[in-house]
# Entry
Amino acid sequence: MATLHLIHTNLLTRLELAQQLSNALSVDDALLFLTHGVYSLVTQPLAFIQPIYVLKSDLQLTGLALPDTIHIIDYDEFVNLGVRYERSLSWN
# Structure
């Protein structure tokens, strides 16, 4: 079952949670980084093969520049992701 993982916390400061997330992922899943979760993408120690999305409004608040491999989306695209994936799981 394909899952959209909503990451609300900085995984760089929560390594145990990052490991749990890594163990829970399947190849059909996707990751959406929100609020403080955006800071997880500051460096690249987190290697995911799944598509990675960031909510544009949250990214703008951080002032970070992200690689082109990360998809920056708006609220309409966020809703579309929620429809596309069979379930969602929040990581706090």
User: Anything to note?
Assistant: The chain has a mean pLDDT of 91. The first helix runs from residue 15 to 24. The chain has one domain: 3-91.
